[in-house]
Amino acid sequence: MITKQEMLLGGPGLNGYAYCVDVYCVNCGQSIIESGPDKLDGLEAGDTECTPVPIFFGESDIAQHCADCGEYLYGPQGPEPEDYVLTPSGTLSAATSVSIHEGAFLGEFPTQREALVYVASRMDDIDRFWPNVWWCSDHGNLWQIDSEGQEVKS
Q1: What's the rounded Cα separation, in Å, for the pair 128 and 121?
Q2: Count of alpha carbons within 13 Å of 73, Cβ hemisphere only?
Q3: Contacts of 36 (CB under 8 A, 6+ apart)
């Protein structure tokens, strides 16, 4: 058996905790541990449904965020396969193209505003799914934008 104190020690490379099919940042994971029993069972078996298990040097094919507070934990920090990407297109980049990051080209629009309106209506009316929206510059640099086309600051 492992005590609460041993679980809270952490160490170099601690990214968070896996618990009940989710991942949690260090602070939220430690709150779960502190609110639990004094002796934590199941860690030897790796049973994350009974015991928060520390994640050291976490790796993932998709970005992982804390299930409680939403803090970024680890994984790629770019568009995920279902995210929308807006790209300058047309003569002198006067138009804006919309596509799914790892999917279909959806169309070209005269302005970025019209492209954003299309994406918002598609999310609300067709997909009923609200992934992130990214701007891809004419140099290929990506950054996340909000529904007004402003950069999302992390």
Answers
A1: 9
A2: 31
A3: 4, 52
What does the domain layout of the chain look like in residue ranges? 2-74, 84-145
Can you give the chain as a three-state secondary structure string? Answer: CEEHHHHHCCCCCEEEEEECCEEECHHHHHHHHHHCCCEECCCCCCCCCCCCEEEECCCCCCCEECCCCCCEEECCCCCCCCCEEEEEECHHHCEEEEEECCCCEEEEECCHHHHHHHHHHHHHHHHCCCCCEEEECCCCCEEEECCCCCECCC
Nearest alpha carbon to residue 135 among 96, 109, 77, 108: 96
Are 145 and 86 in contact by the 8 Å Cβ rule? The answer is yes
pTM to 2 decimal places? 0.54
For residue range 21-62, what is the model confidence (pLDDT) as tens digits? 889 989 998 888 888 765 555 445 455 566 788 888 777 767
In this structure, which amino acid lies at residue 22?
D
Rounded to whole angstroms, the Cα distance separating 133 from 116 reads 9
